Amino acid sequence: MRTTNLALGILTTIALSFTALPGNAQSWPSQVVKIVTPFPAGSGGDVTARPFADKLAKRWGKPVIVENRPGADGIIAVSTVLNSSDGHTLLYTNGGPLTSNLVSHKGSLPYDPNDLLPISAAAEVYVAIGVPASLAMNSMSDFVTQARSKNGQFNWSGTPGSLDYLVPGFLRRAGLNLQRVPYKEVSLAMQDLSQNRLQLYVAGLATQLPMAQAGSIRIIAVTNSRRSPSLPDVPTARESGFPELAFDAFLGFFAPRGTSLELRERISADLQAIAKDGDLADRFNAMGMRVHVTSPAELQKLVASERARLPDQNEAASR
């Protein structure tokens, strides 16, 4: 009898230990959930993560905190998530750490992107193509014409990641010679764009919309497959005749390796329920984004599609 009780005690202890693992969807979360993001505080990625965190905390009955770990093309944030052992740490990111890092950090990437398991997309990010308002440019064709006439005097910049490959591809096809200017802070890029020290800026609409509304810059296109509700008169790059710039950016949730599909689908279902909140949609629309929650499989398709747009290794090495 004592042997039987001992065996039952051991089995109970083992069972309880498994409830703390990220694979057990029924009892999860059992503690504070941490959402790690590679975006700095106040950025578009940061301010969209926080409404989800607030609503998930209410739904789960556990605190959900956002931890900003910017830098190194998302490597710091990804490493934090993959090295976590509490089973309650998630990643909220754009596609870069799973896509463009494969090219830009080829041979030195300290993690396997396939160890980041998809949970759900959270938002479709409208990517705007901005130019100084002081230049007489109302379309992509106008930009190409003026850039050719200036013969290398124009500069460009944009959000690091896949755009580092898509924009140079567009410039080559158009026969344009523009110097890329790196910026550590978005505000500095926007200041230079408004004052015509920078002539082309490709980045999230959320960062450019205030200046566009103020009239200091002009949005001439969005890279997305659909027009932004915030700027319905602004065409897409494809509509403008430049399909090589077509790019649908996303923000999404990922879990570290070992997280069960059952749990990931449960979190996805919770996010889909949250997405029905009209207040959330209004907040995202005001920032130039669209709430877009998916299944894990659908998010994986978005990642695969973005990877397919990357150059091959030889082409990337020649840049």
Brief characterization of the structure:
This protein is an alpha/beta fold and 319 residues long.
Q: Compute the CA-based radius of gyration.
A: 22 Å
Major β-sheet strand ordering: 2-1-3-10-4-11
* Low-confidence runs: 1-23, 313-319
CATH class of the largest domain: Alpha Beta
Provide a descriptive summary of the structure in words.
By secondary structure, this protein is α/β, with parallel strands linked by helices. The chain has two domains: 27-125 and 248-317, 3-Layer(aba) Sandwich (D-Maltodextrin-Binding Protein, domain 2), CATH 3.40.190.150; 127-245, Periplasmic binding protein-like II (D-Maltodextrin-Binding Protein, domain 2), CATH 3.40.190.10. Helices cover 40% and strands 18% of the residues. The chain has twelve helices and eleven strands. The chain has helices at 2-18, 44-60, 75-82, 101-104, 140-150, 163-174, 186-194, 205-214, 261-274, 278-286, 296-308, 313-317; strands at residues 33-37, 64-68, 89-93, 116-125, 127-132, 155-158, 179-180, 200-204, 217-222, 249-256, 289-291. The strands form two sheets. It has a six-stranded mixed β-sheet with strand order 2-1-3-10-4-11, with helices on both faces. Strands 7-6-8-5-9 form a five-stranded mixed β-sheet, sandwiched between helices. The radius of gyration is 22 Å and the shape is globular. The N and C termini lie far apart (74 Å). The relative contact order is 0.17.
